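Incident log, structure service

09:12 report received: a user says their structure output differs between two submissions of the same chain.
09:20 pulled the input from the user's history:
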Amino acid sequence: MIVGLYTRVSTQEQAQEGYSLDEQESRLRKYCEALNWTIFKVYRDGGFSGASTDRPALRSMIHDIEDSRIQKVVVYKLDRLSRSQYDTLYLIERVFLSHGVDFVSMTENFDTATPFGRAMIGILSVFAQLEREQIKERMALGKEARSKEGLFHGGDAPRGYTYSPDAGLQIEPTEAGHVRAAFQMFCERQSSYSICHELENMSGRPWNWSALHYVLANRLYLGEIRHKGEWRKGSHEPIIDQKTFDKAQAILAERSKRHRENHRDGRVKSLLGGLLVCGECGKRYYSFREQTNRKQKSYADYTQIYECAERKEHHTCQNRIWKASELEQAVLDEVRKLKLALPERRQEPPKDYTAEIKKIDAQLERLMDLYSVGGISLESVQLRVNTLNERRAALEEKQYLSAQNGKTDYREAKRLIQSFDDIIHHATQEELREVLRTLIDRIEIHGEDLEIYWKL
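09:34 re-ran on a clean worker, output below:
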């Protein structure tokens, strides 16, 4: 019988009699000698806790087990293998026995090659399950207590903060500035690609859409803590004010709605999906995969194409079917051409709707005065107030969009066009798709010709 001896001590146990590595090895060697077992190797983990299985000698032993170099693992005591019943059971069942290797604990007379030893596996599994449940319960209680106190649950600190168990979440000024910049640029309706690009230049850290969305949608930056799906006031200082956060959520919802509308049939995963319109019948062009080799069924035997929905479904439109690679390249080339022809534009002042909004406010005040003296019924007041509020909201939206058109849109589009080659080489398809949607309203297909309607 070829065996491996495993020994372990943690730092606190070094001085305890009977637990030193040398003492364990000495007793195990005598035990193996009495049973006429051949020792392949002694695996020694000195100064490693039994609460974790991430130990160098243990990893080495597992590697040798997987290579079928030993037939039995021998330890001085069960807790030398692990102090966790769950980890002990996992190592015995999933690592040792699954590779045909038995396990022996000298002190407890535990040997999986015997009927008693195999029965002990069932007992261990019961205690392992109990241990798991107790750990989960303690963690849940701990999280509940920390949540009630408004404390962060621990782990990696979100961008903009540092974390320590004693101090909790503390604002990190530089990163907090990057978080504020992300919200500001997003509320100015810059594209996600340009925001991530700018943040990477500012911070020297990678930013992508997932990281940006995590920041923009996270109420933690309002000073709140989430527990069991609910947000409650936290003990940490907020980075973003409520007004800025609400504006960002409105834009996220708007973009999400537009994304769903463009992708509602589940087929638009392509670069130009949602932008293409048939110039013959007015229906959308969609991306499909066309089988090019009728005898084969592999994924490689399909070519991505763009085809008019009317032609695909009813065969009444005869507008051209484009290979995706050709059509996408043609559109990208048109964006590059735009870079050369982009004129300098004198910035026009945004249109001011303040006077019209004030007129509506004055009408609302007169309505309330009339109602207060009994000159108008409650039903009439409610109807007219709702109408006026709707007009007021529409004017406020126009005011905001006018300000954005006067300040940001053209400059942002120009910057994207001028850096377009760099975008193509470094952006993901999702990011490139978003850039194209920032620049292009729609693309009409007329056979071999394309007519691009720009958002400039």
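09:41 both user submissions now match this output. Likely a transient worker issue. Closing.
09:42 reviewer note: The domain at 2-135 is CATH 3.40.50.1390 (Rossmann fold). The first strand starts at residue 2 and ends at 9.
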